[in-house]
Amino acid sequence: MHGFTNRRSALGVLLGRQAFHWVLLSALATLTACATTRVEQNRQMQTGLASGEAMVILGRATYNDRQTEESFTDCLEDILSRGDRPIRLVPQKQFIDQMYPWFEPRTAPGSANDLGRLFSEPGVKEQIADARVRYLAWIEGDTVTIDKGGSMSCTVSTFGGGCFGMSYWEQDASYEASIWDLQTLDTSGQISADANGTSYLAGLVLPIPILARPGNAACKGLAEQLRTFISGS
Amino acid sequence: MVCRMSRTMLAGALMVWVSLLMSACSTSVQVAGDVPTLLVPALSRHVTYVEPKDLVAYVHEEKLHRGGEWLIALGQMNQVFFRQLMASMFTTVTRIETVEPGFLPAVEGEDHDGMIRIDLVEYGFLTPELSGLNFYSASAKYRVELADATSQSLGVWQVVGYGKAEAGAFQAGEAVNAATVMAIRDAGARIALELPDQSFFSAWLEATN
Lengths: 233, 209
Fold this sequence. Notes:
The complex is a heterodimer. By secondary structure, chain A is of the alpha+beta class. Chain A is built from six helices and five strands, in the order H-E-E-H-H-H-H-E-E-E-H. Chain A has two domains: 1-30; 31-231. In chain A, helix 2 (70-80) packs across helix 6. The longest helix of chain A is centred in the N-terminal third of the chain and has 28 residues, at 2-29. Chain A starts with a helix and ends with a helix. Chain B is α/β, with parallel strands linked by helices. Chain B has a single domain (2-207), classed as 3-Layer(aba) Sandwich (Rossmann fold), CATH 3.40.50. In chain B, a hairpin with a 3-residue loop joins strand 3 (59-64) and strand 4. Chain B is elongated, with a radius of gyration of 22 Å. The chains are: A alpha+beta, B alpha/beta. The interface between A and B is medium-sized, with 24 and 21 residues.
């Protein structure tokens, strides 16, 4: 009985330590590094959405070595379709399928000046009117790593293992939304969002990430400005 | 009892590890995706679409130096996509299947204006390791042949479709699928929009007007 009690108390101490370690790790895992964001807007026309009208967010896909990440446009859609003033959005894939072959990377209009030509194609104007799409927001840009350094090594052996050292990487997220009015077939304005941040990976036996996530910061900044821009307030 | 459990767990872990190692060496992709309808008015012609067996059973196999073995089955997507494309491009389409390469069969008793045969000539893909870019890319080269109602070839046009897709960790197969679907769609868009501008095709349109 005595031995059992001792074992229990030893187990209790062990569990207590493990719990402490888990709490510490969870706290470290939730640490986030800072990302600075700058949002700029250029309005060329008055905007506003009537009841039932919708917007489409399209990631610009080109054939060069850069491409707007799908996760970024998904993030914008997610933020804009929720909140106090949700905007009705037609999902990107659905819109591109309905407009096939006019919004494929090769055939999509490059500027608002091309909209007149596109709308003269049979069925295009009617399709957009049916879907009640008023605005197109073309998103261009990406997140790139501009600097990285430090070193970290991880080892595994029969006696255990661990990671030691510190590495960092600096990322720059630069995106621009070009908003086209499909009623006037003209550009309504542009919004740009730039975010920069440095992330760290510290090796303290376990690798502990401290992430800046500038892409996420740029998405939030751009989405809120886009909401204000489109709703015209 | 504890020892037996440990052995069982160890054996299980070993099996998972071995299967992970094996799956890391080969990737199998059954290409599938959305098949859109053309937002382009159908040409008022009755064509016979010659569908080669090679097109609908096409499988690309490749062993990459640093990317393992790949098996990409495009055939089913080709079949569904080009049947839909032909049905959207022309008002009336009759389909015949053939196993013979480069063959335009004579069709008797069919009141049609001409025949179209589509073959997949070449397919290729690149991984980020090979291209040095952040995404997977794919290209598909198709050969489109037009013949008149008597099976006389009027012209051949080759078209290359291109697609690319980003990939997260452990999503190489999905990315290759997405890039391949984009390549097929790109080729389809070019066939729909550029084929009617080819001289032999526009001449046929005039002749069958």
